[in-house]
Sequence to fold (71 residues):
Amino acid sequence: MSTGYITVIHPEQVAREVERQVKLGCRAFVLRAVAGGGMLDQERLGAARYVAGLHAVVELESPADVPAAAR
Fold:
């Protein structure tokens, strides 16, 4: 199973990117946190989960997983 890494910010963009990657065979997704896990990140997670479907794995990247240079 391949994992898609989602870096776009707006929930609509997240949905489009997840949809594109589902068509390519991705069934797991990690979203880069852009709002410290706040409301925007929750909206992005919801958009990704809706498009990816019930059997997909969708999670928000933990800030500890991000290299300091990428923050």
User: Anything to note?
Assistant: The radius of gyration is 11 Å. The mean pLDDT is 90. The chain is about 40% helix and 15% strand. Residues 4 and 21 are 7 Å apart (CA to CA).
